[in-house]
Amino acid sequence: MFELIAPDLRRFEERLPNELTSNVAFIEAIGEDLVAAGGKRLRPALAFLTGRLLAADPEATMQVALAVELLHSASLLHDDLIDDADTRRGSEAAFKRYGNVVSVMSGDFMLARVLGLLARTGSPEFTRLMSHTAAAICEGEVLQFQVASLADYSYENYQRVIEGKTAALLAAACEGVALLAGAPPAQAAALRAFALAYGRAFQMQDDYLDLLGDPERLGKPVGGDLREGKATYAVLVLLLDHDLAEARAIVERRAARPGDVERMIELIHAHGAHRRARDRIAQEAEAALAALQAFAPSPALNALTALAESERLRVG
Fold first, then answer.
1. What is the CA radius of gyration of the chain?
2. CA atoms of 185 and 280, how far apart (whole Å)
3. 8 burial class (0-12, 13-18, 19+ CB within 10 angstroms)?
4. Which 8-state DSSP code applies to residue 23?
């Protein structure tokens, strides 16, 4: 799906280290680890596909790609510390290797670099968008903790969490390019609607697989979210639509007893909650596809369409 923008992604990998240079060795090392780890680069890819879709200025598109990826990377450094994660993309988490202070301040360093990128664009609209996006990321993470702490489970809260955690930054990648390209407001709105729906589908898929996926394919045990007190969509079906006291008890004790994760999986299948979750993911993918109807056929549109369609197939 990313063959069209392979040259753009290569240039991105060449440019990213320049945004992370520092004369402090630990910060430089964390930046080098980030570049070496790579990852899906989904956010830059969305920026570049949007750039191709709108025939946007390549340098402006690159600025958006760098800004969204640095904001994402800064949030990951902070998230790993909050979640006490041992690894990130197969390597030891930064705070485990360098300590809490270095990890947090390196994340803040990346945020400072984002500010520099925003200044270079000279766009108040893009700066405002990134400000709202950064706030949404923070709100999503805190809301997730709040919901688990207060057992305040609802579909509305779940959607707000996944939009903050994932969809908001994907939307910034697409909408940011549209803003810098001077695209008509209707097109910018359509791109934002596409990315929000796609981002919700993407995060719901990850949540689904975290509990109901194959541990060998995932490379980790299932049930990580449940052990953190997170009620994802299939679990919410049991809590909200079936009012299952047993499921609520498992969530609230964070699957602390042996067999809790396996029992939750049994309850999900027994009540068809897995099908409900898959249907909801498909609905979000359809919403993403519908938003793309605002654009004329093109190779970039085909790639964006394939991304949305892939979310209907990932869990099978």
1. 20
2. 28
3. buried
4. S
> What's the CA gap between 154 and 190, in Å, rounded?
27
User: Are 285 and 311 contacting, i.e. CB atoms less than 8 angstroms apart?
Assistant: yes
Half-sphere exposure of 171 (CA within 13 A, CB side): 28
| 237 close to 211: Cβ distance less than 8 angstroms | no
CA angle 226, 229, 234 (to 5 degrees): 50
Average pLDDT over residues 86-94: 54
Written as six digits, the tokens of 247 are 């499921």
Instruction: Return the pLDDT at 36.
Output: 72
The CA dihedral of 266, 267, 272, 275, to the nearest 10 degrees, is -60
Q: 127: closest CA among 136, 117, 118, 138?
A: 118
Q: What is the pLDDT of residue 95?
A: 54
56 burial class (0-12, 13-18, 19+ CB within 10 angstroms)? buried
Q: Are the beta carbons of 95 and 87 closer than 8 angstroms? A: no
Q: pLDDT tens-digit profile of 137-148?
A: 999 999 999 999
CA of residue 152 relative to chain centroid, distance: 23
Nearest CA-CA partner of 53 in 310, 292, 284, 307 = 292
Which residues are CB-neighbours of 226 under 8 A, at least 6 positions away? 211, 235, 250, 251, 254, 255, 260, 261, 264
pTM (two decimals): 0.92
In DSSP notation, 66-134 reads HHHHHHHHHHHHHHHHHHT-SEETTEE-HHHHH-HHHHHHHHHHHHHHHHHHHHHHT-HHHHHHHHHHH
pLDDT band at 100 (very low <50, low <70, confident <90, very high): low
> How many whole angstroms separate alpha carbon 60 and alpha carbon 178?
10
Domains of the chain plus CATH, in order, are 3-310 (1.10.600.10)
Beta strands in 178-308 (DSSP E): none
